[in-house]
Specification:
single chain; 230 residues; two-stranded antiparallel sheet; elongated; 5-stranded antiparallel beta sheet; 23% strand
């Protein structure tokens, strides 16, 4: 167990304990030596975590130090940080902005003494960033999926022919090189995939397909083996 995780777990153990907990008991639960626990306690106290007690008598967490109701472990938090970093590679500006806000909320929810151990600067996600589509905003696509609202797109098909489609978008796939809109196409009367980089213009229609989104997604899932394109 890494040190940052261990510090967090010690706080949790003391917070939930009904009485003093010895270093030996803590060490046994965390699988580390008593000496390591002594060092961790000293470090927590140096970070102003109100741990009281001593060797032989055990330790308690003085009332007044509370963790948020929904608290992630260090590994869980790092998983979120990495996932948020990976979002930047999608080229979806709306999701990237939302990821930044989530990062700030996580940092704000963490107890101050633990924040230095959760710096996102230690975790990076490298790779090519998908160029944002020119003719359509993926935030608009996500809104249309949520609201079950139709979109009209000017689209260039696989053969390079221009076409206008009115679609009912039900899913958005983030590939490493492009994004695909999965939608019911009114022209083709079936589920089709539309690459966002082939869309030259888009319009959110004042028309809906409410109550049909889930069934259309299931139809798409059932036809995965058959394939389908614009």
């Amino acid at each position: 167990m890494r040190k940052a995780s261990r510090l967090f777990e010690i706080i949790q153990i003391l917070r939930l304990a009904k009485g003093p907990v010895t270093a030996s008991q803590i060490g046994e639960r965390l699988g580390v030596t008593v000496r390591s626990i002594y060092r961790d306690i000293v470090e927590l106290q140096a970070m102003k975590v109100p741990v009281e007690g001593g060797r032989g008598i055990g330790y308690i967490l003085r009332p007044g130090f509370e963790l948020p109701p929904m608290m992630f472990t260090v590994e869980e938090t790092e998983a979120i940080v990495v996932a948020l970093a990976l979002l930047k590679r999608t080229g979806d500006r709306g999701l990237e902005a939302a990821a930044g806000r989530v990062n700030q909320k996580i940092a704000g929810a963490m107890p101050a003494p633990l924040r230095p151990h959760l710096s996102s600067t230690a975790l990076h996600a490298w790779g090519t960033v998908v160029a944002p589509a020119v003719g359509i905003d993926t935030s608009l696509v996500r809104q249309a999926i949520r609201d079950e609202q139709k979109l009209t797109i000017d689209y260039e098909d696989a053969a390079g022919a221009p076409t206008r489609r009115t679609i009912c978008p039900v899913a958005l796939i983030y590939y490493s090189a492009t994004h695909n809109i999965v939608a019911w196409c009114e022209l083709r009367q079936g589920i089709r995939n539309f690459r966002t980089d082939r869309v030259s213009h888009s319009l959110l229609e004042n028309a809906h397909f409410r109550g049909q989104g889930e069934s259309l997604r299931q139809q798409w899932i059932d036809s995965w083996t058959e394939g389908g394109s614009g």
